[in-house]
């Protein structure tokens, strides 16, 4: 009887520990990181160069905050992670657009210099 009681106790404790381990904690750090990513993408020009991605990131942060308020921590974390990815995409697209503009400007400067050199050679 004692062995049976010990096994039952052990199973109950194991179940309790497993239940505690699966309880999600509030993803406050992830939300803070995601908000910082959104802010950075916006400050770099994401509104101009990647408006859809930045809007998506902003909406997901808002939804993550609502999920936090509702104590839906798994959902909040997932949304915050998605917001961070969207913000990083917006930041990357913004950097790419700015690089393309810089390339076009450099090509135009090179063209103007070539014309000037050609005129001087005549």
Automatic annotation (TrEMBL):
Keyword set includes Coiled coil: yes
A Pfam family it matches: DUF4398
TM ranges: none
Domain DUF4398: 29-106
InterPro entries for this protein: DUF4398
Keyword Signal: yes
Name this polypeptide is given: Uncharacterized protein DUF4398
The organism of origin for this protein: Thiohalophilus thiocyanatoxydans
């Amino acid at each position: 009887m004692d062995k049976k009681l010990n096994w039952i106790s052990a199973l109950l404790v194991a179940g309790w520990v497993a239940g505690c381990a699966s309880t999600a904690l509030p993803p406050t750090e992830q939300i803070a990181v995601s908000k910082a990513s959104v802010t950075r993408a916006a400050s770099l020009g994401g509104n101009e160069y990647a408006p859809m991605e930045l809007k998506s990131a902003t909406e997901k942060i808002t939804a993550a905050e609502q999920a936090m308020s509702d104590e839906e921590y798994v959902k909040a974390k997932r949304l915050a992670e998605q917001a961070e990815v969207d913000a990083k995409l917006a930041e990357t697209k913004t950097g790419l657009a700015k690089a393309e503009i810089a390339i076009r400007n450099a090509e135009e400067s090179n063209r103007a210099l070539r014309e000037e050199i050609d005129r001087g050679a005549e």
